[in-house]
Amino acid sequence: MVGQHIDRDKLRAAIRREGSDCIFHMLDVAIELLPQSKLRRLIAGYINPAELYADGEGKQDLMAAVQAFHKGSLAGEYYQAFAVNSKNYTDTSSGTLAWKADCGRLLERCVQCAKTENPTTVCQAFELVFSLVDRIDAGDDDILFFADEGGSWALGIDWDKVLPAWFKVISATTDPGEYPQRIEAILKKQYTHDRTKVMAAASRVATPAQRRALPKL
């Protein structure tokens, strides 16, 4: 509830119960939330801040960031294998954790950019990330290491948040006939539940002609 304080000791205990995956992702989010002064205080006891000063003008634009992520993924920069045994078969390598965090952060940027930026560019950024997800599902590329069975289901992508933003930029960049085809293709691969809700979202951002081409709910 608003106004209630989080008990820090309870939070610490809860995080420790969740394990390394939770800790990694919470820290990744905290890095984005903290102002520079508090970020320096957070890392000072562990990493020399002077080694981390920004080069150049700072944050890459969306497309450059996604292209770098795509290139690094295909080059195997996130692939980190380990010897699997009966004790560690549920573990996640640090490379896979890093990929999931970077993927989530870039998709969040795509969602935000879909509101204001060029839809063609944002659409291209979305689909570069989607292409990596497809390759991971295909299981024939050394992008990520999974100790047990893996695939897009294990990546933690919030499709309920991602898809409506993608529908918006797809609507702005495709003709009426292509719009439903693109939607059907991704839903078949990544979103097989609650079709009514997701198709309603696609209908809301569609042009009148695109809406008529969508399958009836």
Task: Describe the structure in brief.
The protein is mainly α.
Write down the secondary-structure element order.
HHHHHHHHHH
Using the alpha-carbon principal axes, give the shape. Answer: globular
* Total DSSP helices: 10
How much of the sequence lies in strands comes to under 5%
Number of domains: 2
The main sheet comes to: none
Mean pLDDT: 88
From the N-terminal CA to the C-terminal CA, the straight-line distance is 36 Å
Q: Fraction of residues in helices? A: 55-70%
Q: Give the class from helix and strand content and strand pairing.
A: mainly alpha
Oligomer: single chain
Q: Uncertain regions: pLDDT < 50 for 5+ in a row?
A: none
Count of extended strands: 0
Radius of gyration: 20 Å
Q: Could you walk me through the main structural features you see in this protein, from its secondary elements to its overall organization?
A:
With 217 residues, the protein is mainly α. It has two domains: 1-53, no CATH class; 57-213, no CATH class. Helices cover 60% and strands 0% of the residues. It is built from ten helices and no strands. Helix 4 packs parallel to helix 6 (119-138). The two termini are 36 Å apart. The relative contact order is 0.09. The model has no long low-confidence stretch (mean pLDDT 88).
Descriptors:
217 residues; 2 domains; 0% strand
Helix and strand layout, with pairings?
Blueprint: H1 8-18, H2 20-33, H3 36-43, H4 62-74, H5 94-113, H6 119-138, H7 159-173, H8 178-190, H9 195-205, H10 208-213
Helix pairs in contact: 4-5, 4-6, 5-6, 5-7, 6-7, 7-8, 7-9
